[in-house]
Each structure stands twice: as structure tokens, then as C-alpha cells.
Design a protein that fits this description.
53% of the residues lie in helices and 13% in strands. By secondary structure, the chain is an alpha/beta fold. An eight-stranded mixed sheet has the order 3-2-1-4-5-6-7-8, with helices on both faces.
Length: 299
């Protein structure tokens, strides 16, 4: 039987980070800025450590190393901030090389996985969790800039959550607890509104290129739409030919992208979502809804 003693005071925590990528460097930077005791950062890539050094220079006592085990030994809380596909490799390494992890809090920063992915370390006494910043990080600089205004989602062992509340509260704007079984849908939602939003903008930019127009003239309408969504929600912010029941425009759109199969598929799928929104709002009558639905399916 494993007995865990939750006696570590949050103000005394020594924090180590595994993974000197965008998330690892930016969170380390913000934690240090907000007086958290980050003692070590590891990565097998020498270039990644050199990059980390440029951001953490002047921070005395932070060890930069290629030894993940060293980070664990020196830390009370270990944040695995690697790419998702590498988490299991880190877990396997720690499980193999460390006999005991009693008193250690080990968490990862992936939004796609619950703390379950860390479970081999539970057997050795570690308390497990997740601390995921709901944010997009194209580079370290932008990550550092947006993290203080970011919601941080946490999940995990009861004893771990107290520590994560404290740490995450000094990284982002607000801390939200989430159940492990909800992680997949949580991450999928983020992919839809962030990653696939970028894909949608790329598809739109492709069409713009057909007529020699760049993305810039469209930025004000994109900003206005996002502002409306923030204030009213997506349902009440929807405008355009679907909610107007403008059948002729929808037909002309489909004809214009007849040879662009992928963009046409995206247009039809999202138009079906918009049609359901129009139905919920009561913007158009049932006859028009049926007609548009038939046009989209016929495509």
C-alpha cells in the first residue's frame, strides 16, 4: 500500500521542467518572474537548452541539463512540457531509472491527455496531474506575452491539485479544474476554435489569391466577428447568406468552387452547421431550410 504525505508547503516548492520547447521555456520564464522557485530545466537537444539560456539568463540557480533524472531529483514538482508524443518516453525513462518517487508531484502540459498517461509513476509514489495552458504558442516570445492572460486547466490527484492551483495561478489569468474523462473533448474543442480556425483562414486566403487579394483587407471583419462572439456568443454572431436564406448566393458559391474539392467540402460542412444555427434562431422558415439542405447535399 502506498501512503502519500501531502506535507510540502506550496511556498517551498522547488520546480523542475522537462522539455525546453516553447511551453517549457515560456512557463519557466513566467514562473521565475512571479517568484516561483524553478531549479532546473532539461532537454536532450543542446540547441533547445541554448535557446532556453537566452531567456533565463540572469536567473541564478536554474540548472540547464540534458539529464531528465537530475531534474526530478532536484525538484518537488516536475512539469513535463514536451510534445505529446514524447510524454510516454519520459514516463518510461523515469520509471526505469528511478526506484522511488514518494513526495514528488509529476504533471504534464498536454491538453489531449489526462494524468492517466503518467500512471506508471503512480506505483512509485508520485502524485500525478495535468496543467494545460489553453493558448496557442507559435513562438516563445508570443507565449510569454499571452500566458498571463491565459486560462490554465488542471486535472489530477487530489493532493496534486492544491499545488497546481498555486503554480497555475501564478502563470495565467484563471485556473479551471477539469475531469480526466473530459480531456479529449476539451482538447478537440480547442482544436476546432484555434488550429482549424487557422486552417479555415488558409482556405479563405487560397480563394483570395485567385482574385489577387491578400488577407489584410479581411482582418477588420475577422476582428469584428471575434469581438461579437466574445460579447454575444457564436449563435447570435452568425451573419451571412445562410441566416438570410439567400439560396441564389449559396448556389453561386458552390459553382465557384466546383473544382476545389477540399474547400467545397469545408464550405458544405460548415454551412450545414450554420443552417442548424439558423434553425435554432428561427431566422428562416422550414421550407427554406429544407431547400438549402438539399442544395448543400447535392452540392
Amino acid at each position: 500500500m502506498i501512503v502519500r504525505v501531502n506535507s510540502l508547503r506550496v511556498t517551498d516548492m522547488k520546480i523542475g521542467v522537462i522539455g525546453a520547447g516553447k511551453v517549457g521555456i515560456s512557463t519557466s520564464f513566467i514562473m521565475l518572474k512571479n517568484s516561483l522557485d524553478v531549479v532546473a530545466l532539461s532537454d536532450r537537444d543542446r540547441h533547445a537548452l541554448d535557446n532556453a539560456a537566452t531567456y533565463l539568463k540572469g536567473e541564478k540557480g536554474v540548472i540547464l541539463t540534458d539529464d531528465n533524472v537530475e531534474v526530478v531529483k532536484k525538484s518537488d514538482v516536475v512539469i513535463i512540457a514536451t510534445q505529446d508524443r514524447i510524454i510516454k518516453d519520459i514516463v518510461r525513462e523515469l520509471d526505469t531509472k528511478m526506484d522511488r518517487l514518494y513526495g514528488k508531484y509529476i504533471v504534464h502540459t498536454s491538453g489531449a491527455h489526462s494524468s492517466h498517461i503518467l500512471e506508471p509513476l503512480d506505483v512509485k509514489g508520485a502524485m500525478l496531474g495535468v496543467m494545460h495552458p489553453l493558448q496557442t504558442f507559435p513562438d516563445v516570445e508570443s507565449a510569454i506575452a499571452v500566458l498571463p492572460d491565459t486560462y490554465i486547466f488542471i486535472q489530477g490527484h487530489k493532493n496534486c491539485l492544491e499545488k497546481l492551483q498555486y503554480i497555475a495561478g501564478r502563470i495565467g489569468k484563471r485556473v479551471v479544474e477539469i475531469k480526466g474523462e473530459h480531456m479529449v473533448l476539451y482538447h478537440l474543442s480547442a482544436v476546432l476554435v484555434c488550429n482549424l480556425f487557422c486552417a479555415l483562414m488558409y482556405a479563405g486566403e487560397d480563394l483570395m489569391g485567385e482574385i489577387g487579394i491578400g488577407l489584410e483587407p479581411y482582418l477588420p471583419i475577422i476582428r469584428a466577428t471575434l469581438k461579437n462572439i466574445e460579447q454575444k456568443g457564436p449563435l447570435r454572431s452568425l451573419t451571412g447568406p445562410i441566416v438570410r436564406g439567400d439560396v441564389d448566393t449559396i448556389i453561386s458559391h458552390l459553382e465557384a468552387i466546383e473544382d476545389k474539392v477540399m474547400i467545397k467540402d469545408v464550405y458544405k460542412a460548415l454551412s450545414q452547421v450554420a443552417l442548424e444555427m439558423a434553425r435554432i434562431r428561427g431566422d428562416i422558415n422550414e421550407e427554406t431550410i429544407i431547400k438549402i439542405d438539399e442544395i448543400l447535399k447535392r452540392g
